[in-house]
Fold each of these.
Amino acid sequence: MKALALIFRRELALAWSGGGGPLLALGFYAAMTTLIPLAIDPSPQRLSVIAAGVAWVVLALASLLSLERMFERDFEDGALDLLALGPAPLEAVAAVKCLAHWVAAGAPLALASPLAAAALGAPLDLALLVVATAAIGGLAFAFVGGLGAALALGSRRGGLVIAVIVLPLISPPVILGGGALSAYQAGLPWLTGFLLLIAYTLAASAACPLVMAAACRNALS
Amino acid sequence: MISGLTVAGLALTRGERRLFAGFDLRLAAGEAVALTGANGAGKTSLLRAVAGFIAPAAGEIAFAGPAGPLEADDARRADLHLLGHQDGLKGARLAGDELAFQARWTGGDAAGLAAAVATLGLQPLLGLAVRHLSAGQRRRLALARLVASPRALWLLDEPFAPLDARHRALFGELMAAHLARGGLVLAAVHDPLPIPARMVELVA
């Protein structure tokens, strides 16, 4: 556990150093939320219908931003060798990397998401559910994103490869989270979608570290 | 604790290319082996195979402790240092932070860290960003984890390349002390090691 705490702290420090990852994601989030009403139709009636969903999709895209650095940087400079030869298995290292990624980028985005939804005209009583779905879905994005980042190791144009791998895999949480939000907004039962979102996140956090570790070993060989 | 390394009938391939086959090596506690061979002979690959990164095409790599054979991956994670061409140091971070991470991650404590800083004269570098260090300074920083965290088997890939004469001599002394404590050194080199070592040549 002490070793994993070490990795966690280092990952957080790395996320903030060199480009301020979280600020970048938040800036992208703000820019997209501003851009979409400009492109569609800024009338409040129309926007408020799609507000929660749009906030969610933009959140998913924003969480893709800094994925490329998650494993690639350690792979390029040899730190992945060191991580593989430490006291904790690579699976645990990969899981901690995803958690740190979520704390650095996913959680700030989740906190910003009700603001974005409200700015697009979503009703205020939706805010709590927006934060909850964004935080839980964001954790799934982090694990699935880490999987994409590990599989793309060593490939040229890694960012694009990651997006192609990750986007299909994050469609279930987008459907479930967005669905729960629109159901809540329409006064329909929303709990099932929310619980399924939690289930997806748990499944991703259990399965992805195994794949990430295997992909890292493959890249190192 | 690793006190013996046995490589038997090892064959390595990279892509379609067979690097070498039928390679045998025994390394006991207190011994150093200088691994030589032409460029591309597979020195780095052999070190990475011993570290567990490259799966052998044939043959075995086994670790033994004083009480008998060790489970290979446990032994690697607990008792092996690999110092390769890449040092794993992050340019944007302070040298002190990176050193502390590398040393602690590989099992070093505060006393070991202080000893490494003192031995390698790193104190003036600790407050600098890694990207502002020279190649030799980076290498010294990476070397420090060998001193800070006691692991028995050192796998060194061209460890002297960027070091100046004074630090080459110092590293030689560190290796000699490591061997005297019962450590093992397997180093891929082009120039002879500054310590008594068996020469083993890799040929295709």
Note: Chain A has ten helices and no strands.
Amino acid sequence: MTNINYRGRTLGSDLIVAALVSFSLCAVPIAAAIAPAQAAGNVTLSETGSTLLYPLFQRWIPDYAGLAPKVSMIAAATGSGKGIDAAISGEARIGASDAYMSDEQVQKNRGILNIPVAIGAQTINYNVPGLNEAGVKLDGPTLAGIYGGKITTWDAPTIAAMNPGLQLPHQTIVPVRRAEPSGDTFVFTQFLDFSTQTWEYRVGFGTAVPWPEVVGGKTATGNEGMVQALAATPYAIGYVGVSFRDAIAKASLGTAPLKNQSGYFLLPTAETISKGASELDPRTPADQRLTLVFAPGEQSYPLVNYEYVVVAARQDDPETAAALRSFLLWAVAPEGGNAAKYLDAVGFIPLPTFIRALSEKQIDLIKAPSQSQ
Amino acid sequence: MDEIADASRPISAASVSAEQTANHKTVQQYIDELPAWSDGTSLKSAPMTGMQWRIWSLAAAGKFFEGYVVFMTGVALPLISREFHIAPAEDGIIGAASLAGILFGAVLLGGLSDYFGRKTMFIWEMIIFCAFLALLILCTNFPSLAICLFGLGLALGCDYPTAHMIISENIPSSSRGRLVLGAFGFQAVGALAGTGVGCLVLVMHPELSAWRWMFATALVPAIAVTIGRFFVVESANWLAVRGRHARAEESVAKLLVRTPQYPTDIKLVRHGADAGGEERGNSSFRSLFNSRNRRATIFASVPWFLQDLGTYGIGIFTPVILAAALGGGSDHVRSLSDLIADSILAAKGAAMINMLLIVGIIFAVLLADKYGRIKLQIVGFIGCAAGLLLASFSIDAGGTGKIALIFAGFMLFNFMTNLGPNAQTYLLAGEVFPTEVRGMGAGFAAAFAKIGAVATAFLFPILLDVIGTRALLYCLIVTSILGAVVTWFYRIETTGVNLDEVGRTPDDKAQDSPIEKVAA
């Protein structure tokens, strides 16, 4: 299997449009806290990246501030590509990403770690008036056909065959994709790549891919932008991070049950996401760069991924290194950031014990130069 | 300067008649001659001299590195594909680059050994091999990779005829079959070593760049082999045909250094055709199809082509065999670790197939000079047909019987093809042509077979789709039997035959005249 796009492209900042406004979480309290903390020699940890992880950081930061008052945190939703770039350049201490770094990025940046902090998923959402509650079933080849411009109407024979009994409208499908390099695009295109040979041969997968030209297709920035675009466009279809399920529900969008490797149509639930991940947990390597998409197993939901924080193993000073280690160890702990009260709210599931141990091992590598071997 | 004068100034039989003696012999007669003690007692066999072993070892080493690098490429390709973002659709270009290199190398470079000499091309092919191997280690993108593989293919193609000729023209006729096939077998040994070292590198250095280290392991020994090739003698057989008799006699003398020295006086027969000009030494490509060589061209090329068809056919079952024997790989490559694990699995699969190749070749080495090439090739083709038939029965079978039939058919085919056509077509292609077109002829036969390989690689998937596995296998059974039939009708048995005599008509022999030249 080859991967032209993901491995071939660096996440060029020129392509990145940070349409979701970056802002400080709990802007006033944190901004107010920064000055005295800095004066006292305290640490600021900045985070930027995945719009899918952003809602989780929104929940983590206030609570962690209570536990570590001398550590102030700032989060921003700028897209996974920007998150990885920022972690590599040192612009941010933590880059959040739904995709792990490419081979080239790893080769060029040996000291950058990819650490899963949770397991996430993605949904395929659509806006077909009258059918949003029905759950139009779809599979990888059909989605590849839609995003490749081969399947153009909702009542196309392949869709009709999967959905007997549904009155599908003879309306043109409007495929919506992300405008900026994004982890969601990585997960979605990898599903198409793994399930559809023509997509694998012609397009591949990655945070940004050479999308086939589709008449009437649209782009959206960030998960929030995607939800808005779908809500505003009848007969549109798109892919959205599971942590935006409240926004999806609010917009009354339909969620498609997806066909997995074993041929079963499944919706993302805690069980199906967990099953998809557990099938592949044992194959997770020490550097934890592994895709969970289109996992084997009858009850495995196909669009599952590790949610990563991308951090430099070598930090500027021991205080920052210690603060980063402490925060990340808390983030992956079942009684800490992986507790149900945080993850359930955004549709994520906690890391299994084996994966948590690998994450902790990587977190232990975060040191200041004076602490390095 | 002696030989230049020889080559440019044909000497008529009449002008040398005064020097004629009964002691003049051909190059091969000297090589085949049993050394005799001073009391006239002959040895029971002609022991190989140091120079003969040196030539054989360096040719075998070349074969070793070819197998080593080609099979290592198979192990390395998934890593290379990932590093250079080679799409699955472009994988075909990788294979095509190597095959195109082999095609051009066999026909053009292999044929050049008829003009510039066996030794010259024996050295140049290794220089080309080392140069492109070094570039391969350093290449940074898909086009440079394709160029490097094409270049390695050139060397590989050139070696098909060249390594064969440099061995067969320097060793006794009686052991030619086993020695040529013994060297050929080193390709399989190299392949085994290549996959083994490839695995070892992957385990020790599980990184995307591991493939560069894999190829690097071959470079220094390959350079050593290249240097070694400067220190072999040129084929006296080829020199004699080119009319360079002084150098031919020097070569024979250097080739047959023994203690005590035997033979002491080297006096070569001068072929009559040489006296009439350079016709024997300057044959064109078209001469492969004249009345003198047409039979040899068909005999060397068509069975080799048909053998490649059958090899492709049985290849349909390779994934089933490997999955049954070694387990399946990952469902998708999900991490670098998956990629490396899959590469190791592929290496094990290649090693397993290679073991079958080695077993078959060992039998071929042991039997080629005993039973003759023709018998082995015919029996091998029939065995291949039987193997394909057994495998075809698996289509209707179920459960364990299905796997058992596939295994039985696969094993039988591989054993029989390596004992028979795979080994014998290579051996015969370098033996059935006269010296003056031997390089060209053997190169053409190899290239013709590779054209078949390219065509079948593109056509068979379509045929498989249109007519189905069963019908395709039946077609291949027919082509295997056809291989046996063509072998029989066009047979040229070369077992134990003096290479000097190959392709020579009674008229040629009548024109032969001895010329006395004493080795310096």
Note: Confidence is low (pLDDT under 50) at residues 1-21, 273-280, 514-520 of chain B.
